[in-house]
């Protein structure tokens, strides 16, 4: 499975190369013709193209004028770690290219996992010949999942997951099962793996780890989560007591929440809406320099979707299932509480990296847009000249791309896949890498756009139905193209 | 593409696909507090529809609408190409607004009849545009009170006071039910200066076609 995927990517990529006629595209990195998994290969090499440069990190928090917000970007890692030549275990395992081809070493590696006495026994697939009725209820072990999300590892149908995700699942699994000695190293491995997508069952855990919210370390995890959730509950009761609510903020949030993904039943449920409103409100009050800005409401939904899903049986579908009845059942409140607090903290972590997108005059967005212009000029000058000739300014279509992180351009499922990669590039994924993704997205339509005049250009660019047929593969191709542009033009970005 | 169709029942425009002899581009901008119904008004005008679940506008949205009018005396058909920038209302986006109103001929300032604080925001925009107009620009300013379907005329006194003071044409609409929207855009069409009309591309296209193939 993984193997087929890998090869498919290569063909797709070579087509793109051919079309855009960028002869020396790959040579710039000296990595030969390694498109899609390029990333995991160059990772940790001296090139370290995919690591935030010192400059980008330094510039990312110039606007942190609030005192109430936790100091962002202060991870436990030492800065030096970032550029260290750490070849992750995974790449050492003889995995050259493509990563999931299951060569001898990998097979050995796999067997070693499966055959470990401690590891989960693999179910015989023959047992499940008849289809069982759909199970859309809350997981029975939801209480232990709330307490320690990693307790889910003992409850996984490993064979089933392997069927879907191939070797990739094993790799995630083994990292999570590890006796974590070096947290940064573990995180590094998770980042490398996550770039190519995270299995659904593990997504909540991995996202929270990549955001440095959930400690990887076993000994700290449970206590830390408990503390964070308590802290959130506390600010809730403080902010909502004796109606000292900031009414302007609350008013705007209460207008926007009913029209946030309103066509999805899940997001139109009042309990979910109330919960999202509280998250936004607390965040806004704790970050007075930006306050609540339209578009931040969109950013809550991927977290909410992924975290809630974690507590539901496999057949439950956030996009389709009605939760009216479910929301009356036992356990729902407990789950919602945990999801709400976790979402709040994760949203905070994310926004810490792009806070100047939302402060007065939104300098972060203007900088991202001017970077997008610069890079697009490099990649396809004919296109940027065409846009200019017809009087179309980037800000007229790219403002929304930046303000909502492209969320308005893709279906939520695709955004979630995209965030696997963005989060693996955390903390600069939503900031710098995003600009390259926007560039790749624009280039997708380059030939069509060159045939259009102002009116059609703007109509086409703001119309999100152009991606309605997209699937995960299209997103992955987009991300890999963005990665190439990033490795070529990263030094062109300006940070002021 | 956006020509009046048969579904467009309320429209008083011709149901045929007319061939216009003259046409003009008309740039319009909508300004006003968030959630007063700017986007809904545009949707009502452009596609005669209302979507209560529609997401909030980010930055600004561009909408076009071809609008045909027939001169009752000469029977001449004129085409107006509406090019509408529907802006986002939140404070944070305010600095983007000049980019969108700079080239506009008409500014529709919208407030919510049931939310009197949104009228204050409307006054702010009118003041800003009038200041801009003093520098040799001429944006026609219209004031619209939307959501008339919800309004119980509770704020009428204050509204009429303000309207009198501001001396701008004022309209009441409901984007939801469609009332007042036609009147608003008819007013705009009627006040278009004849001088901006040029010979229509549609006629030109037709001429070319008939030259190319004389049969059928
Ligand atoms: N009852 C009623 N609701 C309206 C009307 N126009 C808009 N709305 C609602 O008001 C909210 C904001 O509308 P929207 O067009 O997005 O406002 P905008 O932010 O000014 O563009 C939405 O929930 C609409 O459904 C109206 O005429 N009547
Ligand atoms: Mg709007």
TrEMBL record, chain A:
Which Pfam families does the protein's record reference? RabGAP-TBC
- Organism domain of life: Eukaryota
Q: Where is the composition biased (Polar residues)?
A: 41-50
Give the location in the cell. Answer: Golgi apparatus, Golgi stack
Query: Can you quote a single GO CC term?
Result: Golgi stack
Basic and acidic residues: bias regions? 52-65
The record's PANTHER family line, in alphabetical order, gives: LD44506P, TBC1 DOMAIN FAMILY MEMBER GTPASE-ACTIVATING PROTEIN
This chain belongs to the protein called Cis-golgi GTPase-activating protein (GAP)
Source organism (scientific name): Komagataella phaffii (strain GS115 / ATCC 20864) (Yeast)
From TrEMBL, chain B:
Report whether Calcium shows up as a keyword of the record. no
Listed A to Z, the keywords are:
Nucleotide-binding
Alphabetized InterPro entries for the sequence? P-loop_NTPase, Small_GTP-bd, Small_GTPase
Concerning CDD domains, the annotation shows: Rab
Q: Does the UniProt entry include the keyword Lipid metabolism?
A: no
Alphabetized SUPFAM superfamilies for the sequence: P-loop containing nucleoside triphosphate hydrolases (SSF52540)
SMART domains per the record?
Answer: RAB (SM00175), RAN (SM00176), RAS (SM00173), RHO (SM00174)
Recorded GO MF terms: GTP binding; GTPase activity
Highest taxon of the lineage: Eukaryota
* A Pfam family the protein falls into: Ras
NCBIfam families this protein is in? small_GTP
Q: What is the name of the protein in this document?
A: Rab family GTP-binding protein
Supply the gene name: YPT10
